Amino acid sequence: MTEPSSPLLRAVDSRGIATLVFNRPEKGNSYSQAMLAALFDEIVRLGTDASVRAVVLRGTGRHFSAGADISEPHDPADAERVRILALCAALDTMPKPVIALVQGACIGGAVALISCCDMVIATQTAFFALPEVRLGFAPGPLIPFFLRSMSARSLRRYLLTGERFTAADALRIGLVHELCEADAGDAALAKLVDEVMLAGPNAAVHAKELLYELAGKPITKELLADLQFEFNQRFEAPEAVEGRASFREKRKPKWYPT
Fold first, then answer.
1. Which one of 30, 44, 85, 117 is least enclosed by Cβ atoms within 10 Å?
2. Can you give the pTM of this predicted structure?
3. Is 220 left (phi over 0), alpha (psi -120 to 50) or beta?
4. What are the boundaries of each domain within the chain?
């Protein structure tokens, strides 16, 4: 784990689960430029670290993240907005599974961050908002990332009103995958991490690549033929052979950490 005073805490456990923790609880974990820069560097580094199986994002204290720290000086031509966009893009294309655990507030740019995660757990008391219009501007550069996790129809209401919405609403529109009791976040996270550990590491990376590549593509005979050809090759790879063997023998696969 990093220094307790750092705006971002980092740790990797023996199973290869990297945990990144927003650490500005006195500011509701609103993100500073220093936090964004540290998080971006970690996401890039962890994405190429073969020992890392998955990444967890969470926050210390009462809140996941209250969004941008608007008390910091902001030059529209400079760093902060650019960094949140680069960070969202890095999360969106991160080759490893990324899980977010949300408690308390998840606001503005923080909603964009969880929109780029593969799995999102929220406590039932968590709340969400896209309040930029109430500050007099539209969060245009972040809208493509919001659309990663909810339909344009669902986004219209919350983008145009800036109102708070509940964890139950977030689950209904697809922003969140699972709700848990306020004191059960760690248990829900541990269960989901265990599910991720059952997936072949290479298979999970390849599945994410395909999702990113195929989203919105028309289904053609050529596309299906290419996908079938690649599937046939990967079906005989060592990881796939072990996966089928573990299923037949009713045991955990060798990549599952003991």
1. 44
2. 0.92
3. beta
4. 8-197, 201-248
